[in-house]
Amino acid sequence: MTQGSANGTDGVSKVNGVNGTNGIHTNGTNGVNGTTPKPSFGSLNDGLDYDVLIIGAGLSGIYSMYRMAQLGLRAKILEAGSSEGGTWFWNRYPGARFDSESYSYIFSFSPEILAEWDWTEHFSPQPETLKYIEFVTRKLDLRKHMQFDTRIQRAQFVQATNSWKLTDDQQRTYTSRYLITAIGILNEPTLPNIPGVSDYKGEAWHTARWPQGGEHTLAGKRVGIIGTGATAIQTIQTIAPNVGHLTVFQRTPNWTAPLRNDKISKEEMEKIRADYPDIFRRCAESYSCFIHVGDNNDTVATPAEERERHWEHLYAQRGFTKVLAISSDIYTNHEANALYSAFHEKKIRARVNDPEVADLLIPTNHGFGTRRTPLESGYYEVFNQDNVKLVDIRNNPIERITETGLRTADQTDYDLDVLVYATGFDAVTGSFNAIDFEGIDGVKLKDVWSEGIQTFLGLTVKNFPNMFMIMGPHQMFGNIPRSIEYAVQWTAEFIEWAMEHGVTYCEATDEGVAAWTEHVHECGKGLLANEVDSWMTGVNKNLAHKQKRSMTRYNGPAPGYRKRCEEVKHRGYRDFVLKKGGEA
Ligand code: NA7
């Protein structure tokens, strides 16, 4: 879709009296200085419990709530967990940490929080990140707006009142004019579809539901772990030194490269703090909002020696440098990608003593960077330890989980004290499928997306009026807090505008959805990552319903994404069907 075709939806929307009103506010704090009267919905939402309901108290929900409170709205967060944090509340497995620089992967909107919070490591471990989130919540005084242990089961759009009705697992109901979903993209853990999962009598933990302090009980134990994705890699390298024996069951090896984490001294933190404006500017300008920026060099045409020298330099740097600061053709050109994969293959071989084990650890069915590339700290060296065994379950699959461990196809039994499932998530749409979303005329979101995701701006869905998705499908998955801040800001600006204009109904159009979905697919063309099965392309082989590869994320440049969303705002939201007051 081009910008032109987005404009082509002009005049399609039914806009009752709001057409042509160009009163777009870009200042989210409108009215706070006391000079402008604060907009309000007046009595329009009187029959409803809230103006806005937010599902989820992770980063998306927290910032949404902050903005709704700033607007003076009656808003509430409903959260399934017993505290705030979202991803960083649930994922407490050993070694869980950012693999983006702490100081670029956080909220940027509050100078006060940036001034007061100190990071102690370049890549924050989960406990510190959770503390940060708790600090933000306290600082912004948001806990009073959060209701925990509330798992929403059903979200129904009530046409008679143009409002949302949510029902939780205790059959309590909540109503609101607008609904913000802040339910994350990796929120529904999946167990493997291997027979016997419920037969196992020992301790069995999914990494996303790791028991408090579980790692302290692993000393001397026989531990097995299924999976070698980002989560498994962090878990394996952390527990391997402490367990009695570790068996890693690997179906598909992933490319991974050194994280090179380090402590941050007080002096260094002050330098980072002074650098914040530049850090966030660089993120805002870059393709996927990270501080690392690639180049457009021709990898294949570059002399081999020069290429290697450059890659060696990147390899020695922290974080995603070796994933993102490379030439963009590595992500689009098979030959360029093969060269870079070969460079990483050499690195792995140099670190793993047994060549047969190294063979197993080197991916053969996808190139470097074409799946989400985890970063590691001593992962490969783990496989040189006497107490660690790598089992290839691609050629010798797990036949079943038994009472005492598991059995592979060659009839080898592995007896285990603890079995760890690092088997990932029903990603992206899974968070939505876990709730029965029902829109106009009983349309189910699950059905709408069953043949492929369709959205408008990744923020809204046709037939689901007044619902805004923060980190919904078709949004940027790169530097997630950057994407969250933008999506929340856009949504808050719309709701503020809706208040000013008495708009009580906002729905995406067929034309808008078709054009946006086409644009998302267009952006994804030519990317090698979209030729590969992974959670990012919507594939999870553990689900009963078979999932085809799909375009789950926005693959174009972030500045382009934002530009398109801004255009919709500046057109007075005319791309939507809008209704005022009590209009049917
Ligand atoms: P991932 O990246 O989806 O990894 C899941 C791993 O589990 C992966 O190695 C899978 O192998 C393996 N798996 C899943 N099901 C099975 C079965 N049935 N049998 C054997 N092996 C299986 O999830 P993560 O939690 O590691 O990471 C998700 C994201 O969270 C990550 O990218 C970060 O952004 C945070 P497969 O590759 O499917 O052969």
TrEMBL record:
Region of interest (Disordered), ranges: 1-38
Transmembrane helix in keyword set: no
The FAD/NAD(P)-binding domain, residue ranges: 50-273
Feature: compositional bias, Polar residues: 1-10
Keywords: FAD, Flavoprotein, NADP, Oxidoreductase
InterPro entries tied to this protein: FAD-binding_Monooxygenases, FAD/NAD-bd_sf, FAD/NAD-binding_dom
Keyword NADP: yes
Domain of life: Eukaryota
Cross-referenced SUPFAM superfamilies: FAD/NAD(P)-binding domain
Chain intervals with Low complexity compositional bias: 15-36
Protein known as: FAD/NAD(P)-binding domain-containing protein
Species of the source: Sporothrix eucalyptigena
